[in-house]
């Protein structure tokens, strides 16, 4: 069921100065985010992701198209009603955006104060949220006393305080190291699974998408150039932009000079072997080749975990008679695709 629906959404900013040109930051974007899913939006800097977020939470008006949240059309909504919709959408940011002069508890309480929630109820809710993000013992600390990962967990507690149905995460892990990123992504997964929120994750990092998003839209120059299940986009990207992002996670076949160098160093024929999680594994593929008695070794690639599913993309060099090689490769079993690397 659709939770957020964008139909032909555009946003054009007028020229910044006389003689300048208008910028179309979002260009005819249509997509649907289902209730309860984690939807990823990936693109390079300037692709229009942050603008899209500001349109979805009604902070800026669209210049074309329509946006529906929970069946309510934001475009025609008067400001007063828009505020209510905004309260149903929590946000977290790259720089956490905590109030430095307030304690951790004070930061989480802030949106509840704005919403006019009575004091006793506020305190109970703040305690509940700090407990959920594992920071109950930091209630009286100040943001600067916390690590980046802890500050982002406070950001999440604050975003959830007013019980939104949607959480927008704008580059929420981009300022964090890999280990802390994992912690925050685990927490977002819990927000999705245990609290049932719909989450939209904006990022320029494909491994964030691999870890958390069930579906992904790839943006470039204001447009969505590809949308699909995360696993499908990883294993079978349809556009150059998507392929470039996938390559940052999945070590695909080397190309150009790297491939030429590899050929020089390796004797034997090169094959790419790919498999998904339909019962295939690296061990089974290598086992089959070993039993066939051909000489082979792994020259490139590896096995990745995409949304909890296995995806293997290996390049091997094989030596042996054409016949032996053919019969060895035929024995790798179902679910495995073998392709010779063109000379
Ligand atoms: P991303 O979040 O993917 O990095 P943005 O949405 O920030 O991309 O920006 C998309 C394009 O829109 C960029 O060319 C940017 O310069 C332009 N842009 C964003 N906000 C404004 C604004 N308020 N006024 C004018 N141009 C803007």
Topology:
Layout: E1 2-13, E2 23-34, E3 38-42, H1 49-56, E4 64-69, E5 72-73, H2 79-87, E6 89-93, H3 104-114, H4 119-132, H5 148-161, E7 166-170, H6 178-195, E8 198-203, H7 206-212, E9 215-220, E10 223-229, H8 230-235, H9 240-247, H10 256-265, E11 269-275, H11 282-291, E12 295-306, E13 309-319, H12 322-330, E14 336-340
Parallel strand pairs: 3-8, 3-9, 6-7, 7-8
Antiparallel strand pairs: 1-2, 1-4, 4-5, 9-10, 11-13, 11-14, 12-13
Q: How many E strands?
A: 14
Taken in chain order, the helices and strands follow as: EEEHEEHEHHHEHEHEEHHHEHEEHE
Small molecules held by this entry: adenosine-5'-diphosphate
Major beta sheet, specifics?
Answer: 6 strands, mixed
Q: Quote the distance from N terminus to C terminus.
A: 48 Å
The unreliable regions are none
Q: Mean of residue pLDDT?
A: 92
Q: Strand order, biggest sheet? A: 6-7-8-3-9-10
Count of helical stretches:
12
CATH homologous superfamily grouping of the largest domain: P-loop containing nucleotide triphosphate hydrolases
Structural class: alpha/beta
Quote the beta fraction.
25-35%
| Domain module tally | 2
Shape: elongated
Percent of residues in helices comes to: 25-40%
Rg computed from alpha carbons, rounded to a whole number of angstroms: 24 Å
CATH top level of the largest domain?
Answer: Alpha Beta
The CATH topology of the largest domain comes to Rossmann fold
CATH architecture of the largest domain: 3-Layer(aba) Sandwich
């Amino acid at each position: 069921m659709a939770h957020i629906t964008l139909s032909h959404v555009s946003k054009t900013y007028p020229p910044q100065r006389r003689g300048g040109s208008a910028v179309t930051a979002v260009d005819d974007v249509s997509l649907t985010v289902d209730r309860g899913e984690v939807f990823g939006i990936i693109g390079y800097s300037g692709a229009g992701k942050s603008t899209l977020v500001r349109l979805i939470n009604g902070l800026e008006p669209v210049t074309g198209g329509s946006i529906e949240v929970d069946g309510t059309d934001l475009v025609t909504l008067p400001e007063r009603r828009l505020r209510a919709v905004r309260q149903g959408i929590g946000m977290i940011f790259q720089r956490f955006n905590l109030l430095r002069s307030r304690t951790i508890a004070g930061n989480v309480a802030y949106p509840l104060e704005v919403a006019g929630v009575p004091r006793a109820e506020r305190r109970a809710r703040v305690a509940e949220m700090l407990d959920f993000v594992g920071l109950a013992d930091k209630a009286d600390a100040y943001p600067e006393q916390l690590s980046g990962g802890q500050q982002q967990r406070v950001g999440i507690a604050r975003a959830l305080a007013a019980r939104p149905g949607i959480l927008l995460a704008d580059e929420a892990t981009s300022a964090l190291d890999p280990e802390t990123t994992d912690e925050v992504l685990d927490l977002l997964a819990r927000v999705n699974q245990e609290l049932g929120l719909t989450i939209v994750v904006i990022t320029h990092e494909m491994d964030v998408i691999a870890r958390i998003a069930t579906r992904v839209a790839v943006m470039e120059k204001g447009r969505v150039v590809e949308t699909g299940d995360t696993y499908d986009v990883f294993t079978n990207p349809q556009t150059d932009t998507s392929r470039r992002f996938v390559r940052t996670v999945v070590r695909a076949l080397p190309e150009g000079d790297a491939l030429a160098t590899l050929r020089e160093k390796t004797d034997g024929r090169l094959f790419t072997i790919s498999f998904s999680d339909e019962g295939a594994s690296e061990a089974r593929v290598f086992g089959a080749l070993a039993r066939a008695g051909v000489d082979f070794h792994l020259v490139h690639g590896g096995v990745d975990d995409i949304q909890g599913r296995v995806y293997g993309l290996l390049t091997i060099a094989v030596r042996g008679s054409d016949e032996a090689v053919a019969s060895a490769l035929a024995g790798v079993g179902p679910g495995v695709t073998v392709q010779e690397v063109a000379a």
